[in-house]
Amino acid sequence: MTNNIFLHGLKLNTKIGVPDWERAVNQQLIIDLDIQLKENHTFNSNDISKTIDYALVESEIKRIALKHNHHLLEDFAEDIISQLKEKFRFEKIILKISKQKILPDTDFVGVILER
Which CATH number belongs to the domain containing residue 75 in this structure? Predict the structure, then answer.
């Protein structure tokens, strides 16, 4: 038995990118996050301690994005994972970050990290 929580389609506006033209304005990032919980409890109560609060995860990601100190999506993703590991107990995390319309013939570019 495995228990997971997820946040998909979280939209953030932040300054990120390598070229100056990319960092000149906020860009929208789309974040998908899947977290495998450490414990494999059967959810037969309303005990929040057996899971992770989605709102707290979202808030932490937004806090990191507000710093605007990342140039690469890879670095931003590693920072998110590192900060979430410090605050929450989980077994595994899959984080996908996408940017739209950065390349003329491509809808999305991005990274997927699994830890």
Answer: 3.30.1130.10
| pLDDT of the residue at 102 | 86
| pLDDT, greater one: 94 or 1 | 94
Q: If DSSP codes are grouped into helix, strand and coil, which group holds residue 11?
A: strand
DSSP class of 50: G
What does the alpha-carbon distance between residue 59 and residue 52 come to, in Å, rounded to a whole number?
12
Listed in sequence order, the residues at least 6 apart from 31 whose beta carbon sits closer than 8 Å to its beta carbon are 7, 9, 10, 11, 12, 61, 80, 95, 96, 97, 98
Number of domains in the chain: 1
Task: Determine the pLDDT at residue 1.
Answer: 82
How many whole angstroms separate alpha carbon 25 and alpha carbon 43?
A: 44
Range of the domain at 59: 4-114
Looking up tokens 């000149």, which residue turns up? 24
Q: What is the pLDDT of residues 27-77, one digit of tens each?
A: 999 999 999 998 877 888 888 888 999 999 999 999 999 987 899 999 999
pLDDT at 12: 95
